Amino acid sequence: MKWPALLPIAFLPVTVLAQDSTVARPSPEAFMASLHPVSGSVGIGDGIATLQLPDSYRFLDPAGSRRLLVDAWGNPPDAVDGTLGVLFPTSTDLLSAEGWAVIISYDKDGYVDDAGAEAINYDSLLHQMREATVEANKERTRQGYPAVDLIGWATPPHYNRDTHKLYWAKELAFSGDPSHTLNYGVRVLGRRGVLVLNAVAPLEALPRIEQSMQSVIGYVQFNEGHRYQDFIPGADKKAAYGVAGLIAGAVAAKAGFFKLLWVAILALKKFIIAGVAALGVVLRRVFKKQATPTPTPPA
Q1: How far apart are CA 267 and CA 6, in angstroms?
Q2: How many angstroms from the chain centroid is the CA of residue 13?
C-alpha cells in the first residue's frame, strides 16, 4: 500500500539501507539494533525537555534518527538537520510500509503567547490554509512535485491551557494518489520555543494514530527553567505569532527548506522540498490579513 508518511518527509517505505550492491546489507533486525533505541526517562535537546517512555515506546537519538531518515527512508542528509529524535511504538516495524513514527524537533522562535487561543475560528483558519496551499501548489507543480490538497480537519485543533500543549490532525490528498494522508501534529509550548512533534499515516489509521498520539502528548515535558511558566516578560524573546500561527504553519515562512513543517510532506519516505519562497509570500499575506481589522460594510 502506498501512502505518504511523516510530516516533513516524503514517500513511503522503500527501504534504502545500502545502495551499493557490493556492500552487504544488514538484516532489518541488525539495522534497527544498530540505531540503539532506548526507553524510560530520556533527555532531549541538550536538557531542555524529558520524555518519560513506557516499555511500549522507543526513542532514537539524533544520530540514530539520522540513520533511519537518511539511510533507511532515503531522505537528503541536509533535510534532517535539527532533528532531536524519533519516537515510535514497539508494535510498528519502521522498515515496513505500515511503519510510522513521530519526528521531534525544536523551534527557537521564542515564547508563543496563547492569549485568545480559545477564540480562534478554526473554520476560518482552515479556509486561509487552503488558500495558502493552492498558492504553494503553483510552485510545487512548477518544480515537478505533486500538488497537495488540504481536505480538512481530521481532528480539529485543541489547545490545553493548563499543559500548554496543542494538537490537531489534517486530511491531505496528493494528486495522482487516490488514498488520503493523515497529518497529526503536536506542539508543546515552552519558555523560549516550541517542541514540534509530527506524525503522518494513512487516513484510515486515524483511530489508531490518534490514540497513540494522545499518549505521546503526555510523555513529553519541558524541564524546569525551560517551561512555559518560566517565561520572564521583558527579558525573554517572544515569537512573532500565536497559536493560530503554529497551526497554519507560520514557521514555514522563515524556514530555509521544508523540514518537519506543515507543507513538507513525507511520502514514500523521501523529503519533498519545494515551494518555500511561494509559501512564505502567501503566509505573510495570510497573517497580515489576520492582523488587519475587517472594515464594517456600508449599510
Answers
A1: 8
A2: 18
Residue 102 lies inside a defined structural domain of this protein:
yes
Q: Residues 28-83: pLDDT tens digits?
A: 889 999 999 999 999 999 999 999 999 999 999 999 999 998 888 777 777 788 89
Asked if residue 100 lies in contact with residue 6, where contact means CB atoms within 8 angstroms, the answer is: yes
- Distance (Å, whole) CA 281 – CA 253: 7
List strands edge to edge, sheet with 220-222: 40-44, 49-53, 220-222
Distance between CA atoms of 128 and 168, rounded to whole angstroms?
16
Give how many domains the chain has, as a whole number.
Answer: 1
**Alpha helices, DSSP H, located in 76-205:** 122-142
Residue 265 counted as domain residue: yes
- The whole domain housing 268 covers 4-291
pTM beyond 0.70: the answer is: yes
Provide the grid cell at 167: 494538537
Kindly state whether residue 296 falls inside one of the protein's structural domains. Answer: no
Does some domain include residue 298? no
